[in-house]
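Build the 3D complex.
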Amino acid sequence: MNPPCIRSEHLSRRALMKAALGSVAGGVVMNWGGLTASRAIAEEARKQKKHCILLWMNGGASQFETFDMKPGRPTGGPFRPIDSNVPGIKVCELMPRMAKQMDKVAVIRSMHTSEIDHPGGIYLMHTGYRPSANVRFPEMGAVVAKYQGTEGGDLPDFVKVSSNGDAGGGFLGPKYQPFGIGSEGSLPQFSTSNMDPVKEAKRHDLRSFVEDKFATETKSELAKMHREAYEAARRLQKGRDAFKIDAEWARSKELYGDSEFGKRCLLARKLVESGVAFVEVGQSSYDSHADNFQWHRGLVPPMEHAWAGLLADLKERGLLENTLVVWTGEIGRTPQINNRAGRDHYVRCWSTALAGCGIKGGQLYGSSDENGVDVKENPVTEGDFFATIYKALGIDPQIENYAGLRPIPLAQFGSKVVNALLG
Amino acid sequence: MFTPTKPTLRYQLTFEGSWPCAVAFVGPRRLAAANQLGNIFIWDLPEKPPEFKADPKAERQAPNVWPTRRLDGHTNEVTRLIMTPDGKHLVSASLDHSVRVWPLNGAVAGKADVLLDEDARKREARRTGKKDTSTAPSATVETQTACEVLEGHAEWVYALGLSGDGKRLVSGDAASKVIVWDFVARKPLSQWSGHPWNWIAAAALSPDGKTAFVSENRYKRDDFDVPTPGLKLWDAATGKETLDVLKVQFPKYNASDRSYGGSQVWRKFVANGLICVAYSPDGKLLAAGQGGETDTGKVHLHDAETGKLVRDVASHQYGITDLMFSSDSKHVISVGRDTCVRICQVSDGKEVAVLGAPRGGQFKDWLSAVALSPDEQWVAATDIAGSVQVWQLGG
Amino acid sequence: MFRIHSMSIIRLLTAFVSIAALPAFVSAEEPLRRTIDAEVKAGWAKAKVTPAKPSTDAEFLRRVSLDLIGVIPGYDETIAFLDSKEPNKRDLLIEKLLADPRFARHQADVWDMVLFGRNPPGYETQRREGFQTWLRSRFEKNIPYDQWASELLKAEGTSAETGALYLAQWRNAPEDAIEAITQTFLGVQLQCARCHDHPYEEWKQLDFYGMAAFLARLDVVTVAQKGNQPIFAIGERNLGEVRFTGPVKEAKPGDKGQPVKPKFLLGGELPETPLPKDFKEERFTEKKMPPKPKFSRKDALAEWVTKTDNPFFARSIANRVWAQFMGRGIIHPIDNMSASNAPSHPALLDAITKELVAHKFDLKWYIRELVSSNAYQLSSVGTGEPNPEWFQHARSRPLSAEELVESWQVATGYLAAESASAKKPETDRFRPVGSGYLIQFFGNPITGTGDFQGGLREHLYLNNGPLGSMIGGKGALAEFVGDAKKPVTERVERLFLTTLNRRPAADEVKKFTAYLTEGNSASEAVWVLITCSEFRFNH
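Done.
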């Protein structure tokens, strides 16, 4: 039975057509409106379903202490590079496990972005747009939830685990708000029902009667949406156990490293395995204006242990080919070391990384000059970064949604997909 | 005799480029200082400094002499320099994972031209508007490579300490390993680990070499994943823990805790790490300095038997970087991120001398290490602005 | 026969007049409501759509209460209205609601959202009790719209007492400010022209900057401190310009651009008296009210925007208030009244605009006419769309967070129990559940195109949240409904009349009777009716 077409989506009909044409392998990948009512198309869509895990380095990790080392230069610092499993690629000695996963990873060393402070940078690297007084841009997670999410699933499609950034669903709407898990795994307020299940079933039955009658008599589109959201909230009760990792933690501890970030990454893998489209995992805080080397020495090893574990785990479970793992923060850090032994904010030239979901691993894309001051080759803007991410996830970055009258593409107008990063 | 009064700045030894970060006297008026590149230079300082008229507005307030020798071997930052009590060797620890023992009159390997004042030349060029074209070296020094390398660490070596009698050495690394060495034999005597998640930040041996005082900590893994540090006494020969000083302070403290809530128990006491420790020469007190960046870095003085906090002395805005006792155990000399050397009385905490003055603001420079001459008349402190300050005490 | 009553005679006569007239034109005597009905009816014929039936009394009662005073009626008012035999009871209801003090408060709530929204830009604009009190007073006193709009744009006084906080949203951002102001008050979208000449409208970049120039000299001055909240005044300097660097694509870094003089949209440059050559600008000092400039561009803008013959102003407010009650503007979207966006009912919009001007921008008069029209009073049952293009059935909209919490207070009987108790009445509007979560998750449940969207966090709150504290109180509705000693039909009736402002249908009586007689929770029955779609939306 075809669900009625939602008038509000008509504004994006043009975008809808473009999106359908832009999908992977010619099939319809998105699952919104009434388009994929047909079971065959839905099956096809689920098979091609892509997921994304965003590893969010809150505060801005230093490229000099991770992927773009400058040993021997005045900007280099005390760490030394080590070889990786890809000839020609060295990483910081703080990342011995990631060194063995570099065949899966594409590092971008030439990020060149436009917001240097935390609020602006966090917004920028979550939405791909600079903050605007007049438009509420959606986060990467909201976009992925909309275009790769599952209608009628038990779990929300945009989960944020101990991370920040509050752009949320933006103009895509409250349906795409993040479901925020706390730093120690706590679910959002009111997620849990303590009601006796028999009592709950009785009230659900009564409510269904009321809603059925209202739907039959009015055919109200708003009521339909309201009811769907009610059902989704109710289904969450069933799906809640997906957020628990205690049982699995004992055997995954070594793979992910015994740290909070390790636990969060395991949760991300578990959620992706359960069908969630987008999980963001945060680690805080890399804002090392003082004692940069101690901070990175403390933060990077547990992070890279978990990241390497996640890649290996996803690979082993056959999930990596359809799961994009994005590594980024809001900013990079200065080549100059300041008088507090720290590095300050820097966005002229810094590093991010991508793995999985068709990303061509084992490469260093773009480069910086000998001191890491400026991009030497192949600058990548925030728009380009987002365009590439969406493209890898089978989402056409030029799809437009409307904010008022303005058609707004998913990735900034003028941005380009970095094809070298895609296999 | 330690008389911490009437300090006068005698030398401002130019040591620019990489930050100077370790210092030790290697003779009555002979000084060793090292930087983050791993260079160790030796200066011979005339008792009477050369004629010098200080311009009150200038950076330079005391004369410079160039070093005479450079010890080559380390490839990364030198974290500590200690002279043996018999004055024959200099021991160094480094981020290059090694501990080296340098004979103080070792064979000369060769000569090298060194540039130690590149910043000064750049300043001059800016001032005069002329491009800096001089390629002449600051000095030509003898180089020495002769040293013994003590193998045993596979990570950054932060901690280094020598027993009062010079017979035992303790070193500690970022993989939480502590090694006590039979220094005479140059062989490890015992080794143990602190909590696996910690780095050994600092270590000291009791005057008789029987007890090791070790501070271990690490930067957090996440705002909500804050591993607990440690401050303990250990039997140097067996590696057995003999006293948990932190637990004496905080009976409820749990060494396996890494919750945010747990960290609030010890946060104020440990600040951003107790990154320098010392045993008083009379063996009665332990000192631990709060490293930065922290609002006010203090030195905790603990009873060496009970571990109880006796008092806090010294306070350096933004944190302490190094500390030591005077030989009579009556004073603590500390340096920190406020560009000062502070000398405090152990008995009552009274600050009796301040060498230098804070340059103001959070973005000014540190004194990163401090040393006392054998006769305790001179104090040397490395200044990350690119010099070693040498002060004379007692007028 | 019909009762002789002065109002009904007038209505009868005017109805006669309007029936006789063909495509309606405004006669001096014809009330606007008749014009509205005639034009809307003509629209149906043109679009070949079938209109819905008129609304039932129950539908109308709830709808107009929410639209006028922002809260559902209580049980007693519901019974009184439904059972009244007065033929003009709807008119009487409308008058009663218009005279209710909550009318002013609700209209101020609506406009506060238009002027600020849930997350306004700017520093310290989130907490704005001073502004809200001022705005409410404009509606309480029925100050004409052009007058208070002008006050708003002139921004005199301090943020504690007047509407001065409005302009404080855009500190040093005249471009952002003019975008918002032209959209809100003139229904014009200038923002595309900010970066390049508009692709298909007539606005050029210089038009945009010419308008932004009016606000180039503003500053937000902190004149006092009230506790931890700063109090602002808007100061205007004597000097200062906006600079124009050409199309954004061609802009070079370091390009400072040329200053642009203020120029009215579709009009001429603003004549300004030049300052003396040696004029020295004095800086504003904190804690002091900034002095007025020798010549105020901002005042010139305010006067021009709110002029009766400004081609956009009257038309824009006519369209906006129409949309407020009818779901969508005659020109849709309401802030895009451009040449390429034709009105669905051009003659109607012209007529309303003309009448509104003749009535000197009396919004209360306009609202009265609107809600008295048959078009407004249609049932909302039709195609199922929330905002039908031809107004062939009434619109549906979600209740705002404020409407929800206050309606819950009424529907659960919490308010009635509170009044009955001897306790001093509380002032927190969001009692007993608090405002934080509600505003965050129910405050803006729409997409970029203004369409409602259900959210997970909304329903987690409804399903597992604190509504029980309202439902389960002593003396609340659930007590009555759960009282096995009372006849069950009475209990079910009371339940529906209190929550949904109507009597239950036969099948509802059957279902709820079975539910209650089985001994199931009366609180949950209340919960069902206050969280269901029929409650959540105004329809």
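Strands of chain C lie at 218-226, 229-236, 242-244, 258-260, 397-398, 537-538.
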